Amino acid sequence: MDNQPTKLGEMLLQAGLIDQFQLESALSYQRNVGGRIGSALVKLGYIAEQTILDYLGAQSRFPRIDLQAVTVARAVLSMIPAAKLYKCMAFPVELRKDGAGKSLVVAMTDPTNLLMIDDLQFMAGCRVVPVVAAEAEILSALNRHFAGGNPAPSPPPADFDQVRLPGDASAAERLDRLLALLQEKGILTRREADKLK
Fold first, then answer.
1. Are 118 and 82 members of one domain?
2. Within a domain: residue 153?
3. Are the C-beta atoms of 25 and 31 separated by less than 8 Å?
4. Per residue in 88-99, pLDDT tens?
5. How far apart are CA 20 and CA 128, in angstroms?
6. Which residues pair with 161 in a beta bridge?
């Protein structure tokens, strides 16, 4: 097994928790609406957030943390601006001394997002060690510690949340519906959609 980092969506696909269609449609949703891949998979109804958290928590390199039971020092909270924490849906938990340097433990929903981790490391000025927490727990912790801080990220447009297919819909039916939605939004032309069928 190689040591290359794997993205969350690919990890869930390899574990058999989602299928290729679900991953591709969640990536499309993410490109158009924004947010994180885990949130897109949950909002599209492909997987429960608890399933993602349990899976990541079972991975030895991504321990799970209960943010309700954590007390965080003010100095740790000030290492990364609140606006950035809300945007990344991340919460600093603890500053650790390790050897000659230090590392910041940060709770996040997607510990495989290396770009976000790099960004947080740059802002904190030290190494970031990701741990896993539910999005609702992170948002609650941010609101508790940054009273009057940033508002929660705005929800996606309502029409994305209203797309529901029966649980027994075939992959072909789901693909047809996704392609129709992408055409309605002007993302794909009819000819491009026909090529994908």
1. yes
2. no
3. no
4. 899 999 998 887
5. 31
6. none
pLDDT in tens, 33-69: 877 888 888 889 998 888 887 887 777 577 888 888 8
- Name the percent of the chain in helix, strand, coil, to the closest 5: 50, 10, 40
83: pLDDT strictly greater than 60: yes
CATH number at residue 121: 3.30.300.160
The 10 Å CB-count burial string (b at 16+, else e) for 37-68 is: bbbbbbbbebbebebbbebbeeeeebeebebe
Domain count for the chain: 2
Q: pTM of the full predicted structure?
A: 0.57
Specify the amino acid at residue 84.
K
Closest CA to 22 of 5, 37, 2: 37
Describe the strand order of the beta sheet including 127-132 as a list of residue ranges: 90-98, 101-108, 127-132
**Which residues, in sequence order, are CB contacts of 191 under 8 Å at separation 6+?**
none
Q: Which residue has the higher pLDDT, 174 or 9?
A: 9
* Length of the chain as a residue count: 197
- Rounded CA gap, 163 and 127, in Å? 40
Q: Which domain holds residue 194?
A: 163-197
